[in-house]
Amino acid sequence: MPVTVLLVDDEPLVRAGLRAVLEAQPDIEVVGEAADGAAVIPLVRQLRPDVVAMDVRMPLLDGIEATRAVLRTVADPPKIVVITTFENDEYVYEALRAGADGFLLKRARPAEIVHAVRLVAEGESLLFPAAVRELAGAHGRLRGNPDAVAALERAALTGREEEVLRLMARGLSNAEIAARLVVGTETVKSHVSSLLAKLGARDRTQAVITAYESGFVAPG
């Protein structure tokens, strides 16, 4: 089955470009388009896309609020990738905090766009991990988020889970973590699932943001 994608951007040329890139792939199908975040929920319910590629800045309902709305109201919500012009945009970080799985630069090469869609569809979120670290350092730690501190304390992670979370925060994939810790990939997947559940995190991105905002991992 192909990965199905909903495109949400107020610029028709951006949508047309993304559609052309994605539909050139045999395993990806663009099932719909919207020009504003206000149209996302009914389209998600109707089309049931695997991935929503959503502009972070739109005139009526931006990508941050649209992400919150989808995750709050849609059962079994799709993966969400926010689209942005600037990778250090605070709007991007707020979208990630709201539950987006990653972000994609509008100037990205076609191969990067395709890779991003496939990556989040497979559950391997945290696109551009170095940029996420920078965003967390600039916008997260400065807030001293008490919710993140409390979430980490409640989680009571094991020593191995803490190791896995630190490596996730550095942007390592499951396979890379397995090689670093000299364990099997399935063992790493088990640790990741466990720590996500303990932290109440939707995905790897949310767990990493909690790690940075709590001070458990220092940016840089």
UniProtKB/TrEMBL annotation:
Q: Which InterPro entries does the annotation name?
A: CheY-like_superfamily, NreC/VraR/RcsB-like_REC, Sig_transdc_resp-reg_C-effctor, Sig_transdc_resp-reg_receiver, Tscrpt_reg_LuxR_C, WalR-like
The Gene Ontology terms for molecular function here are: DNA binding
Is Transcription one of the keywords? yes
* PROSITE patterns on file: HTH_LUXR_1, HTH_LUXR_2, RESPONSE_REGULATORY
What keywords were assigned to this record?
A: DNA-binding, Phosphoprotein, Transcription, Transcription regulation
In terms of SUPFAM superfamilies, this protein maps to: C-terminal effector domain of the bipartite response regulators, CheY-like
- Describe the location of the HTH luxR-type domain by residue ranges: 150-215
Per the record, the domain of life is Bacteria
Can the keyword Transcription be found in this entry's annotation? yes
Which is one Pfam family of this protein?
A: GerE
Modified sites of kind 4-aspartylphosphate: D55
Could you tell me what this protein is called?
Putative transcriptional regulatory protein YxjL
What is the originating organism of this protein? Streptomyces aurantiacus JA 4570
